[in-house]
Amino acid sequence: VKPAISRQEVDDNPCWGGPEQSRHDLKSLLGLLSSDSFNHDNNTYNKKIADLSIKNNDVRHHILHHSDLIVKSDKDYVVLNKPPDLRMDGHHPSTVHKLLTFIYPSASLLSQISNGQQHNFIGTNENELGRDTKPLEEKQRRLIDAISRLSKFNDLPDNELRATHQLDYATSGVLLFGRNKNAAAAACLSFQNRKAKKEYVAIVHGHIFPKCDDEQVNDRSQRVPMIPSTHLETWLNGSEENKYRKKRRRENNDAGNKGSTFVGYMPVHAIFQRWKSRELKRIQKILDVNFENKKDLLQEPSLSHEDKAKLINCTWREVKSNKDWKTAFESLTKKFNDKLRKEKTECKPLLNSREMSDTTALPTLFQLKSQKNTHGNEVNNFFIHAPLAEIKNDFRVYPHPVNVNLVPNGIGMYCHPSTFTPTFSDQLESNNNLDFKPSLTECNVIWRGFWHGKPVSKVKLKPYTGRRHQLRLHMAICNHPILGDATYESPAVHNINESIHKSENKSTEIHNTHTRETCGRMCLHAQRLTIPLINGKIETFQAPDPFVIKDNTSGHKEDLSINFGNNYLS
User: Fold this and answer.
1) Which has the closest alpha carbon to 301: 269, 338, 337, 326?
2) How far apart are the C-alpha atoms of 416 and 479, rounded to whole Å?
3) Could you give the CA distance from residue 546 to residue 172 in angstroms, rounded to a whole number?
4) Alpha-carbon distance 192 to 201, whole Å?
5) Does the reported pTM lie above 0.90?
6) Do β-strands 517-518 and 494-495 pair in parallel, antiparallel, or remain unpaired?
7) Given a cut of 70, is residue 220 above it in pLDDT?
8) Is the four-CA dihedral 490, 491, 492, 494 of positive or negative sign?
9) Which helix (H) or strand (E) holds 204?
10) 20-24, 315-319, 459-463: lowest mean pLDDT where?
11) Which of 94, 95, 133 minimizes the C-alpha distance to 117?
């Protein structure tokens, strides 16, 4: 089992940059995007060529007019084809925020770096930098230097770009930004109401052949169950997600809202009666001799012994007429309920029996009966259902153990022998207060072939929910993790781009020890986004596929070419 990974411990080492920190900055990324300085086959970066590209090219003009980096740009939205291994924002050498700020610099930034002479720095045409007497290289250098000191989109008061959703650091593909508040709000509302539809393309380890639940598979334990399509209606119409959100709101109100009541809550008059009953038992010596050692959330009121003696014979009406007594029991009541609320939150079970039945209503892997091919041809479509939870300060996300246990050794799949099933029980044993969010993914196998001689499959993934790391973890659960996913691949995996190809005998040895070769980037790409926008029209944005299937003469019928970030050149 991999040890927990702190989010603060994750270092950037972009696939397009190389091992040196100096190659991870915005200048290096821009040089890559504006030149043919990257070798796709061996994942090497030529910094010298990239630097020459910065010197001799109008990088911004090239990106806007001669690349696929910007999918669409109008007065309301910018759609970016995000490179892999690039963070959204923050104090990092290169980020999406820095990249877009370079392409769409604000007036205040341009004025700042040109000492108030904006017209001397940039032309009136937003698609190209101005060409005054200062060399182009100097203009771009000053702009890059100014941007390097920024970390967030709101660092510049007149920055027009607003992110409407996010992609993981390692994921590439379609990323939508609003260019004004109204446009961004409309897109964010579509995401919040689950009206946005996403499609991803990925390369995974091994060849996936979903097994139908029919007579052709003798071993029933190896079949993928077939269920009616009506079982997915609650996922398609959003009621499953609404039920979860309603439950979470109710729990938050019960256990987190300081001004609300909850199951077990006691008002001040009940606290007084409870304290009074306890004192009477103490006086009559009815309490257990070990009472003081027992856990009791009810403390003593901040009153003198004389006042406490008087209170034994008082009613609540008499107590609340005395300001000091009333204040003391109000304070005691608040302390009691705060402790009880905290205890209920910390002691919440992993999942109660009712929640467990809801979680297991769908199998972990299944197909729809309508997908069954009566002609005996392959059915390449299946679903993955596994609730996911996050652990504080841990970068990884975890599935519920019930769903992991239902897929031992890749049940329902003809697995490549070197695939890896993650084990999460050790991490879950010490974290029994986890919020497992319902998660569902549709997977369609569109190609099976080889990458550097290793069997891989190309899949199209459609998430029905938007959980963090959902696609990555769901593919790992079904025993086919995404190629290049350093978080959920086997600990024994090694980067094929950092090693010399092994001999045939050595490769066999590695294969038998369940290690496998991977690539320098995570092969997950957000290819398509369909979403209602500010004008009410449903728009579809699509980024080019970076995982190109090509003919190969190496002995395999088909092979795969993977781009690491320089697939934006037209």
Assistant:
1) 326
2) 9
3) 9
4) 23
5) no
6) parallel
7) no
8) positive
9) strand 197-205
10) 20-24
11) 133
* 460 bridge partner residues: 201, 444
CA atoms within 13 A on the CB side of 36: 1
Q: What is the pLDDT of residues 553-562, one digit of tens each?
A: 554 445 666 6
SS3 60: helix
What is the C-alpha separation between 2 and 510, in angstroms, rounded?
Answer: 20
DSSP state of 203: E
Beta strands 559-562 and 547-550, pairing class: antiparallel
Instruction: Report yes or no: 261 and 253 within 8 Å, Cβ to Cβ.
Output: no
- Residue 161's identity, in one-letter code, is L
Closest to 69 in 3D by CA, of 147, 123, 16: 16
pLDDT in tens, 463-475: 999 999 999 999 9
Query: β-strand 226-227 against 365-368: which pairing, if any?
Result: parallel
Concatenate the DSSP letters of all residues of 250-288 into one string.
HHHHHHT-TTS--TT---HHHHHHHHHHHHHHHHTT-S-
Tell me how far apart the alpha carbons of residues 452 and 519 are, in angstroms, rounded to a whole number. 10
Least confident of 135-139, 226-230, 231-235, 261-265: 135-139
What contacts 540, CB < 8 A, 6 or more positions away? 528, 529, 530
> Contact at 8 Å (CB) between 532 and 195?
yes
Q: 207 with 483: CB under 8 angstroms? A: no
Burial class (CB in 10 A: 0-12, 13-18, 19+), 289: exposed
Classify 388 as helix, strand or coil.
strand
In three-state form (DSSP H/G/I as H, E/B as E, the rest C), the secondary structure along 439-496 is: CEEEEEEEEEEEECCEEEEEEEEEECCCCCCHHHHHHHHCCCCECCCCCCCCCCCEEH
**Listed residue (425, 370, 361) closest to 398, CA to CA:** 425
For 31, list phi and psi in degrees, rounded to 5.
-60, -40
Joined tokens for residue 497: 């781009």
Which of 372-377's residues contact partners 24+ apart within 8 Å by CB, and which partners?
A: 372/212, 372/214, 372/226
Report the C-alpha gap between 406 and 404 in whole angstroms: 5
- Stated as kind and residue range, the H or E segment containing 24 is none
pLDDT tens by residue, 98-128 = 999 999 999 888 888 776 444 333 433 444 4
- Which residues are within 8 A (CB) of 323 and not within 5 positions of it... i.e. 6 or more apart? none
In the numeric block, the tokens 């961004």 are attached to: 184
| Cβ atoms 148, 92 nearer than 8 A | no
User: Hunting for tokens 């990458």 — which residue is that?
Assistant: 451
Pairing of strands 77-82, 388-390: unpaired
